[in-house]
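Before drawing any conclusions, I needed to go through one protein's amino acid sequence and its backbone structure tokens, quoted below without any editing.
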Amino acid sequence: MLPIEATAAEAQRVIAEEFAFFGDWSERYQYLIDLGKRLPPMADELKVETNRLLGCQSLVWIVAKGDADRLEFDAISDSSIVSGLVYLALRVYSGRSAREILATSPDYIAEIGLSKHLSPTRNNGLASLLQFIQRAAQAVVTA
């Protein structure tokens, strides 16, 4: 189960504090891998092409459920580092209102230095993941 901080901003602050404990990027990568192992399993019947995140080199499946008051995401990847990236995104955005999701930019990425230390393909995949989350929130707000 993902920890749920009171707000998306609080989740981002806690993530930045956690990553600040590590002195170098090899330790941060290991922590990212460890976080990915905490993702709840996804049912095999959800791992279908229609739930696959496009724009990611790794296999990533993501499903949005809920409404404008509370939108939750289930996601999983076949890559350990990408699973960690998914974990962080879900920690910030899952379980929030659609309006909070739309109002929250992913500041934690720059704050912990992720974008500088990810390969271009992983950065593209992370951008696709965040776009999916934003589109899902927009869809329930306008529904």
Residues 8-142 form a domain with the Sufe protein. Chain: A fold (CATH 3.90.1010.10). The chain is about 55% helix and 10% strand.
